[in-house]
Amino acid sequence: MSPRKDPDPSASVPCFYGAELRFLRESAGLTLDQLVEGSFRGAPLLSRIERGELGMPMDLAVHVDKKLKTGGFFERHCEKVQQARRSGLATYFADVAEMEVRATTIEEWAPGVIPGLLQTEAYVRRLAQTGKPWLKAREVERLVRARVARADFWKRGDHAYYWGILQESLIRRPTLPPDQMADQLDHIAAVIRSSESVLQLLPEAAATGPIMMGDLRVMTFPDAPVITYTENAHSGQVIDFPPLVMEYRRSYDLLRAAALSPEASLAMVEDAARGYRHEAQQQD
């Protein structure tokens, strides 16, 4: 058994909150299972909260306060922890960012921009500068830090199985200077290969498809219903209505069938990276 990794209380507000929760639980002589007993939550969720990886849902905070007799401590600080975790993330996406940490599978369709989990720092910065030119420099950097921090997802030994489908135009459109575009595409290929994930490209020749407007994400969980998340330029929506979730999943399956094979897609990404790299060398 590997040694337990205790959270560093000084690392962040969520880590402090999680460390305090673990200390109080163990002081009370309770296991994770014993503490969540009587709530609608599971021990794995509580464990991640203790490690500072997730915020605590309000219903669980109330339950923990009653069980540990902490006088409402966790309920009072619940929202502050959530705000700390959401720093730099769009309000409408904050809950989804937490969901991806505990998801079992993530299936993503990206017609307009490379998905956040696959973006390099340079790509994030360019999107922020061009998509929201009114942002001050410090706000841009805060957004960049938050987006890059999400890439810790790939360092987790139990991260969700990822399947992404990208519009081919995303690797053809020079969003960045050639050298940085090469870095971005090499990064995608490296992440997909090292994490044993799946990436497909929907070819430009496929002029129409089942979901042509907006990003789509489908997430499954070990202890919760499937949800879908759709996003446009300045808004996003979590959908958990089962019939509608099923419709989106069917549409995603049609995209999967119309896309190039994973092998051909990765080869195309790597070939495009070499093309950008050559172009950058020609400019030197």
Automatic annotation (TrEMBL):
Residues 93-270 form the DUF5753 domain. It holds the Pfam family DUF5753. This is Transcriptional regulator. It comes from Streptomyces albospinus. The lineage of its organism: Bacteria, Bacillati, Actinomycetota, Actinomycetes, Kitasatosporales.
